[in-house]
Design goal:
alpha/beta; single chain; seven-stranded mixed sheet; 331 residues
Length: 331
């Protein structure tokens, strides 16, 4: 929600006045409890994005991931820089076949296709994202370069060895089994192919025995219905097990002239606005007066306030990194 201000926040209130937040929050918590008990978070993630896909796009624009915030550049300019950065790390070329796993509406894949001339397949599980992405592919004039496929990246619906490159942006954080995810990526890559992952990860500074550290990281998962965030070491081990060779690992925020990945919230005062007790009291009052639907305040606190503010607090503490680029190659 890096572009959110009071105007877009009011737009969110108006846009979702008819939503059944009582049942949404009930199913959200049940799905997260199921995920924690079984390791299967798929239904919870799909339920979360059934409502949140349009909301995030409405409040933030098309790009949902964090990027380093370069001084003197807008958030959208920083995203444009990131698209070229991703294309460069992929070494994407015209004529290549590239897969983006967990692509959402396929925004980044379309940008890679436009910049490089490569053909890009986007994979997502959500019906809404397939429909929306296909509409955007047509609108962008990329029908000959881009297409969407519905599926789970733990069981990729493709033959072995057909892609030159695979990439994922804020994708594997939804995986409860990274060994299986990396194995599938390795399977569909051609020999010499490359896998590029850009993820939110817990850092070496994270201490699960520290109550505040644990609370911040747990809140992020509970509010978004995704599995606990992975440590970078788990990615390295899973990739090695799958036969992939780590070629480069780089935190983009540590490059010259780049600001923290979470500063998009701070620059637009989203963090302070969401944390405002006065605003929350007004929301509760509007709910009591039936201006806002029942349980909207629960949704607002649990699914909007927590992920945004916890990302900032965890980022400031250095226990979560949100701009790590990892590049592997299949021998």
């Amino acid at each position: 929600m890096g572009n959110m201000n009071i105007v877009t926040l009011l737009g969110v209130f108006l846009r979702y006045r008819q939503e059944d937040f009582v049942n949404f929050m009930k199913s959200h918590r049940q799905a997260y409890a199921h995920g924690k008990a079984t390791g299967d978070f798929v239904s919870g993630v799909c339920n979360y994005y059934r409502l949140m896909s349009d909301l995030i796009t409405f409040a933030c624009g098309p790009y949902w991931h964090f990027t380093p915030m370069r001084k003197g550049h807008s958030r959208m300019e920083c995203h444009d820089i990131f698209h070229h950065t991703m294309t460069r790390y992929l070494e994407a070329k015209q004529g290549e076949h590239i897969l983006e796993i967990g692509c959402g509406y396929g925004e980044i894949g379309r940008q890679v296709a436009k910049i490089s001339g490569a053909s890009v397949v986007g994979l997502t599980m959500a019906d809404e994202e397939i429909t929306g992405a296909n509409e955007r592919i047509v609108a962008a004039g990329l029908k000959d370069q881009c297409r969407m496929v519905q599926g789970n990246y733990h069981e990729l619906p493709f033959p072995s060895g057909i892609f030159d490159k695979v990439f994922g942006v804020y994708t594997l954080k939804y995986s409860a089994d990274v060994n299986r995810a990396f194995a599938e990526v390795a399977r569909v890559l051609k020999p010499g192919g490359k896998f590029v992952s850009y993820e939110i990860l817990v850092s070496d500074s994270y201490n699960p025995n520290n109550k505040e550290d644990y609370r911040l990281v747990e809140n992020i998962s509970a509010s978004t219905c995704m599995p606990p965030l992975w440590h970078a070491g788990a990615f390295r081990a899973a990739a090695q097990k799958a036969g992939l060779v780590l070629k480069k690992e780089e935190d983009l925020c540590e490059l010259p002239n780049e600001g923290p990945w979470y500063s998009c919230f701070e620059q637009t005062y989203v963090h302070d606005m969401l944390m405002s007790p006065t605003l929350f009291r007004l929301i509760r009052l509007a709910e009591a007066l039936h201006i806002l639907p029942q349980s909207f305040s629960d949704f607002y606190d649990h699914c909007l306030v927590h992920p945004a503010t916890d990302f900032v607090l965890a980022g400031r503490k250095g226990i979560i990194t949100g701009a790590v680029m990892m590049i592997w190659e299949k021998p």
